[in-house]
């Protein structure tokens, strides 16, 4: 794994705006590139090329941010970070175990996750609906979550009024079949800082999910609303 490089779109410290650790300050290592092209995605890193960075300069930047802002949580995000598992493994090895490592992922590259799971502390996994991704990914999501189940894992679903209730129920069943206590976040679509949702529809989704799961939450992308990274 000598001299590994990857397309890094950005490295920065900011407040987590999604999921279980919303409001916690973290260091974000955002990679370019994604293996999906979801219709609602407005993350530039998914489409644009980042600067090619090697492990050494990445570790140096993360270390400086950690000291400056007193942060010990590293979030690997994107794009899709699991496209760069060897790079992430080397970054974690060089940084050491003084940090907690979180990966934010679209939840389908389960073979890539297997290579990394022993080094990761937290898994933030999306379940992608066919209406957005253009394909059915239920089997991939199920395998991915089973690999993640012994970690601190939570699931997010981006849910607008165009999704099918039958598909939402499939997502809920995937989670409940593994553990009914996995936190499950219903996240409305956010475009250009505008949260797009119908509260009656959200209430319906919440009721469906909470009938099978013990920890269901409705949470927009806070960082997009308050306009921070």
Entry summary:
This protein is of the alpha/beta class. Helix content is 34%, strand content 25%.
Descriptive keywords:
alpha/beta; 229 residues; 34% helix; TIM Barrel; two-stranded antiparallel sheet; single chain; nine-stranded mixed beta sheet
Describe this structure in words.
The structure is a single chain. This protein is α/β, with parallel strands linked by helices and 229 residues long. The protein has a domain at 5-161: TIM Barrel (Alpha-Beta Barrel). The chain is 34% helix and 25% strand. The protein has helices spanning 55-69, 85-95, 110-116, 130-133, 138-148, 165-178, 199-210, 222-225; strands spanning 5-15, 25-31, 51-54, 73-77, 100-105, 122-126, 152-158, 184-187, 189-191, 194-196, 216-218. It has a 9-stranded mixed β-sheet, with helices on one face. Strand 4, helix 2 (85-95) and strand 5 form a beta-alpha-beta unit. The longest helix has 15 residues, at 55-69. The chain is globular. The two termini are 31 Å apart. The mean pLDDT is 95.
Question: Can you lay out the helices and strands and say which pair or pack?
Answer:
Elements: E1 5-15, E2 25-31, E3 51-54, H1 55-69, E4 73-77, H2 85-95, E5 100-105, H3 110-116, E6 122-126, H4 130-133, H5 138-148, E7 152-158, H6 165-178, E8 184-187, E9 189-191, E10 194-196, H7 199-210, E11 216-218, H8 222-225
Parallel strand pairs: 2-4, 4-5, 5-6, 6-7, 7-8, 8-11
Antiparallel strand pairs: 1-2, 1-3, 9-10
Helix pairs in contact: 1-2, 2-3, 3-5, 5-6
